[in-house]
């Protein structure tokens, strides 16, 4: 009986620790093959200050063009803004890397006796990389997002936990890549997008 009680205690302790763990950096990779020349696809997405190809973005205001250190403010179709910084741009490799530096707040919640702001994207320390590569006579587009959940302490609220962060990031990548796919293959289903997640 004592052994069973001890086992139950450790199982409870393990589950509590698992739930209460601190944030772990996640890496989500979305890839899609598109039947179009890489240069044509890159031409659509190459300008850091123009995200009109993404239906979730209502407007982009940028400064600095495609130079390292450039910034852009994305006004979302559903409301709110995201400010991003261009870390690296390589036209020859058809790739650029960016980082979120600021986001508007959609609401404030009470959690563990504290006010917690919930941003438009439930993430922290988000970095993205968008790349187009030639693949035979077609191309592959790779969009990588690395981030932490929005709540950086233990016991996150639902609005700022890993599941919410993953769902929102998946939606952003899927919506953008689906739109890009349909510019070249209007009848192809978005199930052609492959997602992998590491944490």
What does this structure look like?
The chain starts with a helix and ends with a strand. By secondary structure, the chain is of the alpha+beta class. Helix content is 25%, strand content 42%. Strand 4 (81-90) and strand 5 form a beta hairpin. It has a single domain (23-198), classed as Alpha-D-Glucose-1,6-Bisphosphate, Chain A, domain 4. The relative contact order is 0.21.
Summarize the structure.
With 199 residues, the chain is of the alpha+beta class. It has helices at 2-20, 38-45, 162-184, and strands at 26-34, 57-63, 71-76, 81-90, 95-103, 105-111, 114-119, 123-135, 138-149, 194-198. The protein has one domain: START domain (Alpha-D-Glucose-1,6-Bisphosphate, Chain A, domain 4).
Strand content: 35-45%
Q: In the CATH scheme, what's the topology name?
A: Alpha-D-Glucose-1,6-Bisphosphate, Chain A, domain 4
Numbering strands along the chain, what is their spatial order in the largest sheet? Answer: 2-3-4-5-8-9-1-10
CATH class value? Alpha Beta
Q: CATH superfamily membership, which one?
A: START domain
Summarize the SSE layout with pairings.
Layout: H1 2-20, E1 26-34, H2 38-45, E2 57-63, E3 71-76, E4 81-90, E5 95-103, E6 105-111, E7 114-119, E8 123-135, E9 138-149, H3 162-184, E10 194-198
Antiparallel strand pairs: 1-9, 1-10, 2-3, 3-4, 4-5, 5-8, 6-7, 8-9
List keywords for this structure.
single chain, 199 residues, alpha+beta, Alpha-D-Glucose-1,6-Bisphosphate, Chain A, domain 4, eight-stranded antiparallel β-sheet
